Amino acid sequence: MLKVNSAANKIEASNNAYISTLYGTGINWNGNMYINIANSNMFEFRNMNGNTQFVLYGLHAWIFWGSGAGFYMSGQSVYVNNNSGMGLITTSLGSQSDDRLKFSETSMTYDRAASLLRLIPILEYEKVQHLMTAEEEATFASGGDGFASRKEVNPELPASHFDHVHEAGTIAQRLQGTDAEFLVSVGNDETPYCVKYDQITSINTRVLQGLLDKIDALTARVAALESA
């Protein structure tokens, strides 16, 4: 049961959960507010259509928007969820690499790493923030503004919303059907395909290690020949 405590500026529930404004009287949804809930209880917020938007349960939290996409937070980890699945967000703490999360470990050979690296085309390109249609891409490629019609429909959005930047990288779809396709997170008509660049860094590191071994061997051979 919920009841309004006007003197304390909060709504109280029988499970001791409450929503309270920090400033002003009553419940001010447009101002600052906080939620205090015991770890054993669950708090759920729904929009006017009855769709779940926010859930707190113990040390877990979910934030949703259309089609189940959103964020999930558990302890020190934050995940993003979309139509392609759930992915862990990397922070300044680094990527999770605990041995307790992995099994069937095998050492990657230099030849294996080099063969994978050769399959990854590196290109320069202009990159936009939103998936383009074939017509929009053709307009951009010809020097026009592929998003001109979107700007007309959404005049309230800032120009930066439609900006593009110059980048170097690879193309996810070009890795599909090759031995390197495990580096791709498959998308769909609404969700972009993604490339796991952190794993490419690991492959690059293994190739570099192999090259260093070759340099050491050649250096030792030269030294032996010079001392003969």
Describe, in plain words, how this protein is organized in 3D.
This protein has helices spanning 110-118, 134-141, 148-153, 172-175, 197-227; strands at 2-5, 10-13, 18-21, 33-36, 42-46, 52-57, 60-65, 69-74, 77-82, 85-88, 123-128, 164-169, 184-185, 194-195. Helix 1 (110-118) crosses helix 5 (197-227). It has two domains: 2-88, no CATH class; 107-208, no CATH class. Strands 5-6-7-8-9-10 form a six-stranded antiparallel beta sheet, with no helix packed on it. The model is unreliable at 16-35 (pLDDT under 50). The chain is α+β, with helices and mostly antiparallel strands and 228 residues long. It has five helices and 14 strands. Helices cover 25% and strands 29% of the residues.
